[in-house]
């Protein structure tokens, strides 16, 4: 089976997860949120749980071997051949390590582009009880995004793989742009 993956990317609060839910419905991908997998790992009481929890609280990037193991396990447990990887790779080291262990590159990268002030507003009203949705951690996450995550976008942009979307519009309008990128031939019948 030939496996393919698409990356859903953007700053904290840009709407990656929200759009992924729509993409799953329309295009039949399996959604893998790296952040969700890490939060589930904390809840499961694994030996890495405390370390992961502390890093998320500080807005830091969890060591790639931890995140990659969780992603690989989720991909293996799922029978699908197309995955939507959300919020990973967080830095160039994550990206290189994932491409090395899987031997795969993404088909393309959706980049939900959104101004910080809009992302901040969304995060402060997300109401999911997340320990990192407070103004102090949000500022740290924005800094990490600019310094560590944007270089990943530049890497994929140089390969012609980035599909940039204006994410500062209503959810439905953003999804219209997403649909245009996947194209009608990929819709679930
Ligand atoms: N286009 C949008 N306009 C307004 N609010 C949005 C939009 N997209 C998502 N949201 C809301 O903003 C918050 C963050 O969205 P989420 O999808 O969790 O972002 P991310 O996964 O990129 O951090 C959520 O409360 C979500 O309901
Ligand atoms: O590959 C990843 C994805 C997430 N995280 C951590 O999990 C947090 C939340 O990530 P998520 O994508 O869920 O949230 P977002 O910042 O996009 O709102 C990040 O700030 C990081 O601390 C990480 O270390 N590696
Ligand atoms: Mg998310």
From TrEMBL:
Residues noted as binding ATP in the record, renumbered to the chain: 13-18, 126, 169
CDD domains linked: ADK (cd01428)
Chief site of localization: cytoplasm
UniProt keyword annotation of Iron present: no
Cellular component terms (Gene Ontology): cytoplasm; nucleus
EC assignment: 2.7.4.14
Catalytically driven reaction(s): UMP + ATP = UDP + ADP; dCMP + ATP = dCDP + ADP; CMP + ATP = CDP + ADP
Binding annotation for a ribonucleoside 5'-phosphate: 39, 60-62, 87-90, 130, 141
GO molecular function, one term: ATP binding
Note on cofactor: Binds 1 Mg(2+) ion per monomer.
Keywords, comma-separated and alphabetical: ATP-binding, Cytoplasm, Kinase, Nucleotide-binding, Nucleus, Pyrimidine biosynthesis, Transferase
NCBIfam families, alphabetized: UMP_CMP_kin_fam
Oligomeric form and interacting partners: Monomer.
Record's protein name: UMP-CMP kinase
Organism: Senna tora
């Amino acid at each position: 089976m030939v496996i393919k993956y698409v990356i859903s990317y953007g700053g904290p609060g840009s709407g990656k997860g929200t759009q992924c839910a729509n993409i799953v419905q329309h295009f039949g991908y399996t959604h893998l949120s790296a952040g969700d997998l890490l939060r589930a790992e904390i809840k499961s009481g694994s030996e890495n749980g405390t370390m992961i929890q502390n890093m998320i609280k500080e807005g830091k990037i969890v060591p790639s071997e931890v995140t990659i193991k969780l992603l690989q396990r989720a991909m293996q447990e799922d029978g699908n051949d197309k995955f939507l990887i959300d919020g990973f790779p967080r830095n160039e080291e994550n990206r290189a390590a994932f491409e090395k262990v899987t031997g795969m590159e993404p088909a393309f990268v959706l980049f939900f582009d959104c101004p910080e002030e809009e992302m901040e507003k969304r995060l402060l009203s997300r109401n999911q009880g997340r320990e990192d949705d407070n103004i102090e951690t949000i500022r740290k996450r924005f800094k990490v995004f600019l310094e560590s995550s944007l270089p990943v976008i530049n890497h994929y942009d140089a390969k012609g793989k980035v599909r940039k979307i204006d994410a500062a519009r209503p959810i439905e309008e953003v999804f219209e742009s997403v649909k245009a990128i996947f194209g009608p031939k990929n819709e679930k019948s």
